[in-house]
Amino acid sequence: MSIKEYPPQKSLHVPVLLEPTLELLDPKKDESYLDLTAGYGGHASRVLEITGNYAESILVDRDDYAIKRLKSFSDKGVRLLQTDFVTAARQLIKSGQKFNMILIDLGVSSPQLDQFERGFSFTNSGSLDMRMDRRQVKTAEMIVNTASVDELTRIINQYGEEPIGLSRTIASAIVANRPLSQTGELADLIKQNYRGKWKKIHPATRTFQALRIAVNDELRQINDLLPLLPELLKPGGRVGIISFHSLEDRLVKRYFKEQFDSGFEAEFTSLTKKPIAGSINDVHNPRARSSKLRAAVKK
Ligand SMILES: C[S@@+](CC[C@H](N)C(=O)[O-])C[C@H]1O[C@@H](n2cnc3c(N)ncnc32)[C@H](O)[C@@H]1O
Question: Which mutation among 34, 62, 292 tests ligand 1's pocket best, with the greatest number of atoms within 8 A of CB?
Answer without folding.
Answer: 62
